[in-house]
Amino acid sequence: MKTAEINIGEVTARSVIDFVNALREEGLIIGPGEVKEILQGLATGLVGRRSDFKCCLKSLCCGSRKDLPVFERLFEMFWQIQSNGVGSKTKVKVKDEQQKSSLIFLGHKKGQWGESEEEDSRSVSGASKVERLRKTDFSHVERVDAALLEEIAAQLFKQMEHRLKRRLKYSARGSVLNMGRTLRKSISKGGWPTEMVFQRKRPARRKLIVLLDISGSMDKYSHYLLRFVITLRKLFKNIEAFTFSTQLDRITPFLNEKGQKEIYNRMSQNLNSWSGGTRIGECLEVFNEKYSREVLTGSSVVLVFSDGLETGEVVHLEKALMHIKRRSRHLIWLNPLKGMKGYQPVQRGMATALPHLDYFMSAHNLDSLLKLENILINV
User: Is 15 exposed, middle or buried (0-12, 13-18, 19+ CB in 10 A)?
Assistant: First the structure.
């Protein structure tokens, strides 16, 4: 038997989206921008052959080498058509339950292959497990899903690290031609590069100060937030990190360890306040007294990861935040509780802090942490 060419005319936007969802089910991270570019390529007729179509999908869907075997397997599973010879009726090769979704991918209508639309949709529709975990509150992650969430977090944070490390940014007045972006913009114009995209050097990053709440009320979030802080350590050469609950600890030296496991070991051996009480104001006052002159400058960006459940006197919190605000450029507070439906920052600590903040954001799942990239990329 020989493999026939894919009839690109039968490939629909729905089928492409279903294929992308199948890849996401297997752990590939594919954003809406990549899907849009695939559809633009189909619309312009630039991917009229099977080889072109496959190359287009692979280049936009695979972010690393380990994605390639998964892509190859699913591509053949969902898009391969077998022919018994010239003039014979083509049919879809279905080996198992997963491959039934290839019937939808080729644009077949309800009932054509003995499957109802409802049965087809069950095999390919619905949010993928990866997408679900990205949106799941850290406190609701089941133990069986924790390992997968760790892998997803590692891949997403690595991609964010790659984007933020770029020393160039898009500019209409830059002096360096951005060939990749120019070519992508030309797809919608039939492949003619009529609009040039330039880039220029990104200004040096500011100093980043991270204050991470590790009190008992933050216990279900602290692990993932600490992992995010470790990623930030790779991005910012000039960073200072602290943990606090009933006391303040400087953890910057621990972040210089080579591996994540070594960082956790050092912290577990040296920190005695993990899962303790919450005295945010008093801890921030200690920060101001011992470290602010050394680490805070007029261009510093301060990140506070905390639920704001203060058990001490709020007067200490207000005084400390006023001092930090005066000596920094941006004061950003990320609160995991903000991601809960109906949450209102009416607790004493959070209500006291709000007037002094430049940004108040959630930090309850992976997607909420990744939104911080839009702010960090400009600081």
Answer: buried
Instruction: Report the domain count for the chain.
Output: 3
Decide: residue 377, CB within 10 A, 0-12 exposed, 13-18 middle, 19+ buried: middle
Would you list the DSSP string of 227-287? HHHHHHHHH-SSEEEEEESSSEEE-GGGGGSSSHHHHHHHHHHH---TT----HHHHHHHH
Compare 100 and 213 and report the one with higher pLDDT: 213
Q: Give pTM, 2 decimals.
A: 0.60
The answer to whether residues 366 and 153 touch, using CB atoms and an 8 Å cutoff, is yes
pLDDT at 308: 92
Task: Kindly state whether residues 265 and 326 are assigned to the same domain.
Answer: yes
Is residue 200 classed as helix, strand or coil in its secondary structure?
strand
Handedness of CA 104, 106, 110, 116 (dihedral sign): negative
Residues 193 and 237 in one domain: no
pLDDT digits (tens, 9 = 90+) for 162-172: 666 655 455 55
Closest-CA residue to 249 (of 234, 225, 270): 270
Residue 135 confidence (pLDDT) above 90: no
pLDDT value for 258 = 73
Helix (H, G, I), strand (E, B) or coil at 168: strand
For residue 94, the surrounding DSSP H or E stretch is none
100 and 196 in one domain? no
Task: Tell me the C-alpha to C-alpha distance, in Å, between residue 135 and each of 19, 129, 130, 280, 340.
Answer: 21, 10, 9, 28, 12
CATH number of the domain at 224, please. 3.40.50.410
Residue whose C-alpha is closest to residue 274's, from 297, 314, 244: 244
CB–CB of 250/221 below 8 Å? Answer: no
Same domain for 292 and 225: yes
List pLDDT tens digits, range 73-121. Answer: 888 877 764 333 333 333 333 333 333 333 333 333 333 323 333 333 3
Per-residue tokens: 154: 């590692």
